Amino acid sequence: GLNSPLFINGTQYLRWIRTVKYTVIDTSKDLGNRLDHAYIAGLWSPLATIENKHKALYVGNRWFNYKDTFKKYPVTHLFLWDGNNKEELRFLNSAYPEIMKRAKLIKIYKIKGLPVRLYEINNMKE
Fold first, then answer.
1. Residue spans per domain, the chain
2. How far apart are the first and last CA of the chain?
3. Strand boundaries in the chain, DSSP class E
4. Which residues are 41's β-sheet partners?
5. What's the order of all strands across the beta sheet hosting 55-57?
6. CA 79, CA 28: separation in Å to the nearest integer?
7. Model confidence at 23: pLDDT above 60
8. pLDDT digits over 58-109, tens only?
């Protein structure tokens, strides 16, 4: 009766939670194998470094580490979520146009149903 929808929804939720964690862990492991001594910036960078030895820099527009980011930190990669209408990418393109012109899209991961883009950057201390 009434327990069936709750059971089905609960089961789907648990499956989704396991998948999300598995995806984040898998992504982090892949980044550990794919990159060498990386310094990864972006709102999702802490998730990108859970299962590897890379460094993460949490960057958010008017929030954290957004001023002179590339002068202050030796960032090698960006890990940018497409959520919020690609706000991270729009901010970085606006604030650091020269660095973003040189940014090379390496891979697109799927986390929480949206793409998270890994860029390699050629940081010439803009």
1. 3-120
2. 64
3. 39-41, 55-57, 77-81, 104-111, 114-120
4. 57, 78
5. 55-57, 39-41, 77-81, 114-120, 104-111
6. 11
7. yes
8. 987 777 767 888 899 999 999 998 888 889 999 999 999 999 999 999 999 9
Count CB-CB contacts under 10 A for residue 13: 10
Nearest of 44, 55, 34 to residue 82 by alpha carbon: 44
Closest CA to 35 of 76, 85, 74, 75: 76
Question: Count of CB atoms within 10 A of residue 70's CB?
Answer: 18
Q: pTM for this structure? A: 0.78
Coil vs helix vs strand at 42: coil
Place of tokens 């990159």: 35
Question: Environment class of residue 46 by beta-carbon count within 10 Å: exposed (0-12), middle (13-18) or buried (19+)?
Answer: middle
CA-based torsion, 50, 55, 61, 63: positive or negative = positive
Residue 28 pairs in a beta bridge with none
